[in-house]
Amino acid sequence: MLGPDIPYSVIKDTHSRLTVEQAAQALESTPATETTTLSQGYVPDTFWLKFELPPALFDGQARWLELGPNFIDDIRLYYRPKGSTQSWTLKQTGDLRLGQSDIDYRNPVFIVPPPEHQNGYEAIIRVQSSSTTILQATLWQPDKFLNHATATTSFWSFYFGLVTISSILAIILAVVLGGRLLWSVAAFSVTYVFVASIQGYINWLMPSLGVPLQHYLTSALTLTSYVLLLWLCVETVDMKRHLPWAYRITMTIGAITLLLMVLIPLDLYGLAVKIQALFYLPTSLIFIGSVFYVWHLDRYRPSTLLLGLSPLTCITGSLLGLFSAFGWIPFKTEIYVIWQYALLVNMLLVMSIAVYRVREKKLEELEKHQLASELKAERDASFHQRQFMGMVSHEFRTPLAVISGSLENLRYLESDNQDRTPRYNKIQRATDRLVQLTDNCLADARLAADNLYLDPQPANLFEVIESAAALVELTDTHKLILSTEGQPSDQFPDSQCTAIIDTALMRIAFSNVIDNAVKHSAGGTIQVDCSRRDGRIAVSICDQGPGIDEENAEQIFERYRRGTHSNRGAGLGLYVARQIARAHEGDLKLLSSSSEGSCFAFFL
Asked: What is the 3-state secondary structure (H, E, C) of 298-345?
């Protein structure tokens, strides 16, 4: 290899004006001390290298000189017997010359005959490129080169066959299943065309095109490959969900980088790559930091570590390749090989992850669909239950009316029989209780209906409250007081406490709260006050009961729930009362509660 095995001297031709004779004369005074692969980065200069090929390297047989990489624009090989003044033998190749070669191979290979003189050859190579300036030159024994070429061609055939299958699979999955991750995998397939260009397959397989397609593909895909790799990596670790600000920065920089392709036809490719490097380096650091953040966020679970390790390896490999292309680190073929392996492994891994995620998403959707079906069944059952309760409650109305009427007749006919009066009172209380429960069930069914219809009419709230109180059995120890703004209600005109309501429903609501006040207090005053607050009418109902625990303050408004101090009722009263208030675009709230009593308020 030129460099590690064959030392050389090198000079820089800034303006590309030197002839081979001028370059040979300038190289005479430059010692052959270079022992590494030539790697100068993205520079517009031309470089001349001089080295010697002694007879011992030939052993009387021709040798094959392999030159690369394939993206170098122009490589010219000059050689002649050492110490002679005869003209130089010229062999020329390069990306712009479609990889011209003595041997039909993907890399340019020239046949160098064995020297006729004992001094061997002196050789000069001229290198000029609009891409990064790198030169690899390897002198082969023909049989060993054939073995090497067969092995590498077999490997790359397997490699591109595998990536072709994976790319087709990625595109199919992206079309069928969708999702940003799968589309990033499908788009990333373009990168393998870049690998094929780097390896010289475009010129080798399509020489009849007669245009430097490989040259322009390498330039354009160098820019797009880094962008697509970043997109694939950020989707792999789901950066949009974990770090949305970093995701936006990465995607914005990627879009700007793609715009740099307009510089290629302007012969400013080197400038475009330098600008891209300025963007790519900080973006890569942001991504690497994001991977560690996601690992920390997920407590370093093995699956998350594996998920982030592959894109992290690809980004690291791409950075090493970038540093090598700019000449910041010594050129090593292994860097590019590892990067190309990592691309394939990452793509296959990401596809597996994507399919797994899609499977999980499908299972979630199936579960949601099942839950929706169960919820619909529950709603239907609830609807039918309310219909049944409404129907039963409606049917209870007639026998309850018969019982109440018969009871009044019995009271009238046997008014002188005081022994039976307690029994009649007991029957009356039970009947009234059933009537109230029936009204609540009917109101609940009506409120739950989709086509709820209210019959709002202006009404004096005190009249409605008095009729509601008539439905409640007040004991001798209870006293109902009506007031307006805290003053006796008879001191205010009726219009002071007038609202537009559905009288039947509001009567049920008021009676429920008044009934609760009676049931949950041993006696005392039940204060009902009508006032105006913030432009709304507030009807407060306060008792002198034991109060309501703080943890039960909201629970008591739920359907079929009762407070801890109550073991009576069905738990519908306050729920129905609140729903009626809200149907009137108002509300029912617990204003205060203590050991001295509770105070509820309707806001209408």
From this structure: CCCCHHHHHHHHHHHHHHHHHHHHHHHHCCCCCCCHHHHHHHHHHHHH
Exposure pattern of 449-471 as b/e (b: 16+ CB <10 Å)?
eeeeebeeeebbbbebbeebbeb
* CA–CA distance, 518 with 544 (Å, rounded to integer): 9
- The pLDDT of residue 385: 63
Rounded to the nearest 10 degrees, the angle between the axes of helix 142-177 and helix 180-188 is 150
Look up residue 92 and give its two tokens. 């020329």
Alpha-carbon distance 573 to 48, whole Å?
99
- Burial classification of residue 167, based on how many CB atoms lie within 10 Å of its CB (0-12 exposed, 13-18 middle, 19 or more buried): buried
Would the pLDDT of 336 be above 80? no
User: What is the number of helices (H) and of strands (E) in the chain?
Assistant: 15, 17
Question: CA–CA separation, 141 vs 56, rounded Å?
Answer: 12
Phi, psi at residue 74, to the nearest 5°? -145, 120
- CA geometry: angle at 494 spanning 493 and 499, to 5°? 135
pLDDT in tens, 342-390: 767 766 776 676 677 677 778 888 888 888 888 888 777 666 666 665 5
SS (H, E, C) 244-267: HHHHHHHHHHHHHHHHHHHHCCCC
3-state secondary structure of 541: strand
What strands lie across the sheet with 38-41, from one edge to the other? 38-41, 133-140, 63-68, 109-112
Q: Examine the pLDDT at 540 and tell me if it is beyond 60.
A: yes
Amino acid identity at 179: G
Average pLDDT over residues 588-597: 88
Please state the φ and ψ torsions of residue 176, each to the nearest 5 degrees. -75, -45
Distances (CA, A) of 333 to 37, 130, 144, 320, 338: 10, 20, 19, 11, 9
* Spatial CA neighbour of 557 closest among 500, 598, 507, 594: 598
pTM over 0.70: no
Written as six digits, the tokens of 288 are: 């690497």
- Residue 481 and residue 540: Cα distance in Å, rounded? 11
Q: State the amino acid at position 132 in one-letter form.
A: T
Say whether 454 sits in a helix, a strand or coil: coil
- Strand pairing partners for 603? 538, 587
More confident of the two residues 3 and 559: 3
How far apart are the C-alpha atoms of 374 and 358, rounded to whole Å? 24
